[in-house]
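User: I'm curious whether this sequence folds into something compact or stays loose and floppy. Could you predict its structure so I can see for myself?
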Amino acid sequence: MALTFRILGPVRVCRDGGPLRLPRGRPTAMLVTLLLHAGVTVPVERLREELWSGPAPASAVANLRSHASQLRHLLAAPDEPPRLHAQHGGYRLRVGPGELDAAEFERLAAEGHAARAAGEPDVAAPLLERALALWSTADPPSAYGPATAAAFDRLRERRSGAREAYAACRLDLDDRGSPELLALLRAHLTENPLREPAWALLMTAQCRAGDQAAALQTYRAACRALAGELGIAPGPELTALYRAVRRREHRPPSFAPRPAVRDDQRVAGGRPALVPHELPCAAAPFVGRHPELTRLRTALTAAREHPVTVTVHGAAGVGKSALGLRAAVAVLESFPDGQLHLDLGGSVAGTTLAPVQVAARVLRSFHGADGSEPTGLAETRARVRSLLFGRRVLLVLDNATDPAQVDGLLPARGGCALLVTGRSPMPAGDVRPLRLDPLPAGDALALLRAVAGDHRVDEEPEAARAVVALCEGLPLALRTATRRLAEGPHWSMARLARLLRDERHRLAETGLRPRLTASYRRLGSAAPVFRRLGAARAGPLTAETVAALTGLPPEDAVRALDRLVAAQLAEPAGPGRYRVGELVRLYATELAAAGHPPDQADEGASSR
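Assistant: Here's the prediction. I'll summarize afterward.
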């Protein structure tokens, strides 16, 4: 009994071609959310955020169970295993190949782009045409939560790319500016007036039809749209096309979405450069951070004429890498010329990459090992800038420790973006650095549900809240500590909370010691001050308190505290006051007890 799901337009579910009656409101919104994450468990907390625009009611979890029951009954069929499963603190919907129009669109569009990149427009055009035909003339409903709305935005962005690639294929196949092609491009620009590739494709099609005057009018319309909305002039390729039209060249150059391999992406000897797609799959649950994600997406997609640099900093284990990866995946379609991901080694001690290694690694991502590696940092960075000039490439440089690791990589022009994460703030040009704080208690509890399961949290709510508090809202600590619960039913939430309350075991159970060691090793002359903090009483610190503990003059104590703040081992708590988290204090106590000098204290602490 064939089942099909249609969400690229009004939501419809059909069995054997006949429509099923969908429940109104939140059950259908839940179905759409699960379809957009088909085959993946969606945490209950994510569903609550998607289905309730404001604070969810106390009955939200019970309501979700009721909605799931409705959907399970709706999709059930004789002799067929259930489609909807409750597992790991969420719900997972099973969808087969070819059953979901959005998945089919992505498959056909990807195959079409690949065929066009391989120089086969006759193969690409029908694939892209089939992909576009899956979209209804009516848009999907707008009453969805932030993650679902963002997913539909990404699908619309991919539809725009597919339309432009299809139009470019038609031109490659000698379409003479047919009325059908012109109508497609005009309708596309009505929806997307800021897409320069579409303006250039329309100009090219109009020239092919022998209407140079219309092509010049189209260029002026593009200028008005770009200036009115963005305050910028058309880019160099669209401007070159305009000049070619004014010279009345017989076949003006086509400006279209770039295929995966272009003539100007070839290295010496004619070997094609690679188009890297290095973003890894995010395996760990991710909860909350909606304002931070929105801010990062907005900043990254602002790269047009000039590159942008966006930085995220925060304490060890706070989730910088996970947030950066989630934001990078969200804007992936905005960077068709490649996405790089490189761990610079700052999360643990002893693995930091030198600046020349970082730049050389970027080159290898595009060229592979071609035997022509530059010899110095300046030359390597210059080659990177030449490679990235005029392209839309996203570079995610994770766990940076020094601005020199990320300096000098971006060219003077083009739509590249650089996303940097690290413990300390990095220079970010016109974009204000984003400081990432620990998860609020509600989000931290939702993460605990996602990794440990709803039933364990609901059965022992007080112990669950204690675990969240003892892990200080740090995602790494929560995920690491809850591994005990996966060892079997003999591990209860209460037993885990008791283990974490024991200061002899808390650091080991949270997995933070190696990360704190990396921060400690960069303290330099402030390291002895940090070790003394283990003896400080709980509560805010002042320069006078630190001076009394260490024997330093107050002004030297202030400078040492500033070093601790820069290393994310302390944080300001008001004028002249500083706070050290309990997990960090435990680490300082271990170092003091080990009695080693700064360059050896981390090994001594790690072996305890």
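Summary: Residues 441-510 form one domain. The chain has five domains: 1-168, 174-260, 290-436, 441-510, 513-606.
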